Amino acid sequence: MLYPLYEAGHLMLAPMRLAAEATRLACENPFNPLAYAPQSRTLAAGCEMFERATRVYAKPAFGLGVPERIVWERPFCRVVAFGEPSAALEAKPKLLIVAPMSGHYATLLRGTVEAFLDSHQVFITDWADARQVPASAGRFGLDDYIDTCIALFAALGPDLHVAAVCQPSVPVLAAIARMEAENHPLVPCSAVLMGGPVDTRRSPTAVNALAREKGFAWFEWHCIHTVPSGYPGAGRAVYPGFLQLAGFMGMNLDRHADAHHAMFDHLVRGDGDSAARHRAFYDEYLAVMDLTAEFYLETIERVFINHDLPHGTLRHRGERVDLSAIRRCHLMAVEGEKDDITGLGQTRAALDLAVNLPEAAKSYHMQPGAGHYGIFNGSRFRADIVPLVRDFMERSLRPAAPRPAPVVPAPEPHPILLRDGPAIQPPRALPERPILLPEPGPGLAKRHGPQEAIPQRIAL
After folding, report:
1. Could you give the dihedral angle defined by the CA atoms of residues 243, 282, 250 and 49, in that order, rounded to the nearest 10 degrees?
2. What is the dihedral of CA 245, 271, 111, 59, to 10 degrees?
3. Quick one: what percent of the chain has pLDDT higher than 70?
4. Residue pair 194/109 in contact by the 8 Å Cβ criterion
5. Does 437 or 65 have the greater pLDDT score?
6. Residue 87 burial (CB count, 10 A)
């Protein structure tokens, strides 16, 4: 019932939002004499803050000033390419940015895309809002996410670089491992993992602690709701985006409250530039999407509770996902010193698990002073991280020296199986001891004949 109540609340507030917006426009109208009164600016600021706090935010646009085109599409995902097709664009290396499917739209990575436009052909996964996907399109779970990654790597390859931001680090690694295990010719050249929860047992954060303390049943009972009528996905079980947003806001409630107080002050003082920056950030941050219930619950269980990938028990379509199979795809892990969502070491675990990847093909960077958002956006990202990522991807295209075959440990001895009898274990070595033969005598000679006819057998 939570989803219908949420929708009903927004409908009930719609007249008040319209009234607040009309009042703001009247207070800011230069032809209104009352607009020049000191109180008018305060009233206009209060009306704008109310309207923004009760608004349902639509999906933002990338707005990067370059053409956008869809080059791959399925019901739950489409791939957006940037730039007009040309020989100059095709001469650049290809980079697929796998955006997180964690409640926000792919436009949250606008700064990530922009940082690589001049040096790469940039593609990004644009995941669909689950409430907009008809129930007839079927389910979309973690295995389907991995299938999508494999299909994308094959469709956009060869010589493809991949950057996984946060949540997709696990399915991207799983997809690469499965392709490597099958000797797929289009495995990506490199993969950059930014703040990904590969092993959440390392430096656990509040997000990891919540999953461990509540358990799977709690999330299934409290977080899964049904899309109400009025949407194409009506009847589909989802994890609503407004719940995810409430969780994100609750983690740093003081910070968000201070930001909105500052926004009110900027509006009252007429500081348009600061107010515009606040609007741009929160127009993106407050726009959320629903996730399919199966994907959300499987991620909670297999990534955050059971830790299947570091334990080596993660399976994709029944096949084990083994990161030791990665031998060709170069890996880079990027972490933030002050990341309060993905703790230090959680992403670096991928480099430790890829035991058969040469050290020369691995790279690690910890950005000092950066939080979760700062490792894929912002000034530190552009100045410090982007040059390292570009250099890493360039190195991955250089021919590598032949690598020796991996050392495979000798198998443990197996039982010897008789056709119609019980299993017999291999014999154990006995300590050396002198062998005593019987002294020849009349009785022994009488039973066995001459001494040389005595069989010299030793039973072990």
Report:
1. -100
2. 40
3. 87
4. no
5. 65
6. 6
Answer whether 48's CB lies under 8 Å from 268's CB.
no
Answer whether residue 398 shows pLDDT above 80.
Answer: no
CA distances in angstroms from 331 to 197, 201, 418, listed in the order given: 15, 21, 48
* Residue found by looking up tokens 């996902």 in the block: 321
Residue 22 pLDDT greater than 80, yes or no: yes
Q: Is 99 left (phi over 0), alpha (psi -120 to 50) or beta?
A: beta
Q: How many CB atoms lie within 10 A of CB 360?
A: 11
Q: Inform me whether the pLDDT recorded for 448 exceeds 90.
A: no
With CA atoms as reference, report the closest residue to 314 among 368, 280, 271, 323: 323
pTM above 0.85, yes or no: no
- Distance in angstroms between the alpha carbons of the first and the last residue of the chain: 75
Q: Which residue in 126, 205, 127, 167 sits closest to 298, CA to CA?
A: 167
**Cα(352)–Cα(306) distance, integer angstroms:** 19
pLDDT tens-digit map of 242-264:
998 888 888 778 888 898 899 99
42: Cβ contacts below 8 Å, ≥ 6 apart: 268
CA atoms of 239 and 291, how far apart (whole Å): 5
Q: What are phi and psi of 158, to 5 degrees?
A: -85, -175
Q: Cis (ω within 30 of 0) for the bond into 204?
A: no
Q: What angle do CA 110, 114, 117 make, to 5 degrees?
A: 140
270: left (phi over 0), alpha (psi -120 to 50) or beta: left
Strands 190-194 and 68-74: unpaired
- The confidence band for 399, taking pLDDT boundaries of 50, 70 and 90, is low
Task: State the DSSP H helix or E strand holding residue 111, giving kind and residue range, or none if neither.
Answer: helix 110-116
> Given the structure tokens 């002073």, which residue do they identify?
369
What is the C-alpha separation between 51 and 109, in angstroms, rounded? Answer: 26
Tokens, residue 142: 């973690």
pLDDT average, residue stretch 217-221: 93
- Give the torsion sign (CA, 135, 297, 254, 342): negative
Q: What is the mean pLDDT of residues 208-216?
A: 90
Decide if pLDDT at 220 tops 70: yes
Q: What CA–CA distance (Å, rounded) separates 148 from 253? A: 35
Does pLDDT of 407 surpass 70? no
